[in-house]
Description:
- It is built from 7 helices and no strands.
Amino acid sequence: MQLVSxxxxxxxxxxxxxxxxxxxxxxxxxKHFRYHDLRHVWASWHVQSGTPLFALQELAGWxxxxxxxxxxxxxxxxxxxxxxxxxxxxxTFWAAPGNDNKKPSDDTAx
Length: 110
């Protein structure tokens, strides 16, 4: 089986079924919906399912990071482990003997 990028797939599918596509969207009453919009749905679902952005960039065939960053806001799950690790580190720091549970901002407050 030969793998093709999403760019190749969607471009080929769009060229091959234009008339059928427009008949179908007219029949169901969709307005202002392009075949290319499915590519955005596809990419959004990938991000929401946890696909890393660099992997999505390769899957979609985008040459620049700028294109894939359009979907970055859809998922913050990849940030959670990093935020939790920092929260644990700060909790350990504040609870350490000799820190008197002072937060860094306590020393700099006027």
